[in-house]
Each structure stands twice: as C-alpha cells, then as structure tokens.
Amino acid sequence: MKKRLLFVGLVLLLILASGCAPEDDGEVDPEPVEDEDEAAAEEDIAGEEEEEVYQLSLAHFFPAGHPAEVDLVQGWAEELEQASGGRIEIISYPGETLLDADDIYSGVLAGTADIGLSAFFYTRGRFPVLEVFELPGIVYEDSYMASKIAWEGIKELDPEEVRDTELMFVLATGPGDLFTTEPVESLEDLQGMKIRAAGLSAETLPLLGAEPEAMPQPDAYEALHRGMVEGNLAPVEVLKGWRHAEVTDYLTRTPFLYNALFFVTMNQEKWNELPSDLQDIFLEVNERFHEKVAAGLWDAQNEEALEWAVEETGQQVIELSEAEQERWIEKVQPIQDDFIQEMEELGHDGEAILDTVMRLVEEYNR
To answer: What is the spatial distance between Cα 108 and Cα 264, in angstroms, rounded to a whole number?
Structure first.
C-alpha cells in the first residue's frame, strides 16, 4: 500500500514539474544582427562630427551697414558655409575694428587677420603693377566691367606683388566722380581746390590744378564737414554709403579720372592649412560669387546713391562737354607715360602691361 502511494506521489510531482517548465517550440532565437545601413549611417555621423570647422577672421574698413559688409562679406561667407556643410565659418570685423584700412594687407600677411578686404591704393607703391587698373585716361563702363577686366588681367599678368597671400578675387568701383562744395564746370573752377585723394589720384589732381589731400575714405566725411577739404574724388556710392551728400552740393562727372581696385585675400599659411577639398570649395565659390555679386557690387550702389542724393539732398549733377573732357584727359596723360617708365625701371614691360589692360577694356566695354 505504501509503495503504491509513493509511486502515485512521484507521478504527480513529475506532472507538476512538466507543467511549470517553459514551452519549447523547437526554434532557436537568432543572434541580434545590426542593420548594415544603420551602422554605415552611424559611421558617417561620427565622421562628420570629427571634421574640423575652420573659423577665419576677415578684416575690412567699410561700415557695418555698407553693402560691402552686408552683401559682399556676409553673402560670400554664407555661400562658403553652405558649400562646405558648415566647415568654413567667416567672422567679419567691419569698420576698422581689427585693422585700419591701410594696414589690412600687411595685417593679413602677418596673420593678424586670416582674410582682408581693402583697397590696393591705400598702400601706394606696394602694388606697382596693379596701378595699371587705376590709371587716369582709361574709361570703364561700370563697376562690373572694371572688376571683370581687373580679375582677368591679374590672372594673365600674375604679378609677383600679390603672390605672398592667396588672392580670392578682386573688385572695382568703376568710374568715379568729383564731389565738391562749389561747382566745378571747367578746369579753371578746379584750380587750387583741396580735394581728398588716395592712390594715383594724389598724382592726378595736381596735373589738373587741384591740391590733393591724401586720406582714407573713413576720414573724408569729417574733413569735408570741417572744411579741411573742398571735395572728394570717389565712386558715386559715397554720397549715400558714406553720407557725403550731406557735406557736398555738386557732382561733376569725371569717369576718365578714377577707378579703385579692391582685394579679398587670405593669409598664405592659413590657406595652406586648409584641406584640399575646402580649397576647392573656396575656388569654386569665389568664381561664382565674383560673377554674381562682387563684380557689380558698386553698380547698384551708385545708381541708388545718385538718385537719393539728387532727390533727398538736392545734389546738382554737372556734365562736362566733350571738348572740356578732352582738356582734362590731355592733362593727365603723363600719368600713363610715367607708369610705363616706372615699370621699365622695375624690370617689367610697361607697354605690354598697359596694352593688356587696354585690350581687355576694348573687349569687355562693348
């Protein structure tokens, strides 16, 4: 009897044990496998996070609200940032907050700023070959044509004087005019007048009978306001962009007297540090942006400034007769002759350099 009860008990325990055990469907759970696409994506993200962001300082002298800052510098910076996926970041220092106008090229050379925007003529004698683009007696149709001619000409001439930095591109104001406190309708009216000047203008004005006062553009308003000078030779945009219509009353059209050339250039060591793919992005964006924005930067400004000056401040525009223009051009011809001689003394073919520019002027001004 006891043996039977013990047997029954064992059977019950076995039944209970089998009921508590988990069911086995005969299938083996697979090992977790990482999705290949997901893994590749994670690797890409990790790679992007490791890519260095290059922050580059840019110094210039234009006011923070000037189109040279708003449209040129910020527009260029935005295109570079987008094209590089955020790896290029330009930090602008406008209004001489990092370097003065005439120290910008040397400041880029020394590494005080990574990139600089300024005028070549602020350091007269430092860029003798490039003065060919600012010679009086050459008429540029507008800033777009002047910029295209200069950029193409520099590529052809490849002057040694700008090989110590990495030139991004150049841009020009195109024809400039004479803004004065008294009307200038002839050479006789200009005699003895003190006119703010820069670069070659300081040599041109004495041939016309005026007295040049060399100073950078940021100082011209105060000089006109205080009566230290009686006029300024500059692009029309200064009437509004630099508020010169507030301190002058007359504009005499002199497209044969003035063209100012500006550079955007990078420290050579900083350029060499950039990865080759970012250098390629700079080169591609530079050409596209030069054509789309930089080359014609002053054209829209000049038109808007003239309209504003005439309508809002009563600026009077004076057009010289053809005969009077010829008198002025004849007076400044020696500047071109002096340029050729100076180039010969420096070991350059001055006539060939000038011929290159005149050929491009004829080609682009059509």
So the answer is: 10
Nearest Cα to Cα of residue 62 among 276, 271, 250, 260: 260
pLDDT at 323: 95
Q: CA 241 to CA 94: how far, in whole Å?
A: 14
Torsion of CA 260, 261, 267, 273, to 10 degrees: 150
Domain at 229, CATH number: 3.40.190.170
Give residue-wise pLDDT tens across range 25-81.
444 444 444 455 555 555 554 444 468 999 999 999 999 999 999 999 999 999 999
Give the pLDDT confidence of 103-120 residue by residue, as tens digits.
999 999 999 999 999 999
User: Residue 340 sits in which domain range?
Assistant: 177-258+308-364
Does residue 23 form part of some domain? no
The β-bridge partners of 234 are 177
pLDDT band (50, 70, 90) for residue 4: very low
Overall pTM surpassing 0.70 (yes/no): yes
Q: Are residues 198 and 319 in the same domain?
A: yes
pLDDT at 200: 86
Calculate the alpha carbon distances from 176 to 218, 233, 237, 335 in Å.
17, 7, 9, 17
Name the domain count of the chain: 2
Strand 231-234 and strand 177-180: pairing?
Answer: antiparallel
User: Distances from the Cα of 2 to the Cαs of 13, 27, 31, in angstroms?
Assistant: 17, 43, 51
Tell me: pLDDT of 82 over 60.
yes
Q: What is the pLDDT of residue 23?
A: 44
Taking the C-alpha atoms of residue 126 and residue 115, their distance in angstroms, rounded to an integer, is 18
Same domain, 328 and 218: yes
Alpha carbon 325 to its chain centroid, in Å, reads 33
Closest CA to 136 of 237, 216, 255, 299: 255
Strands 165-172 and 261-267: antiparallel
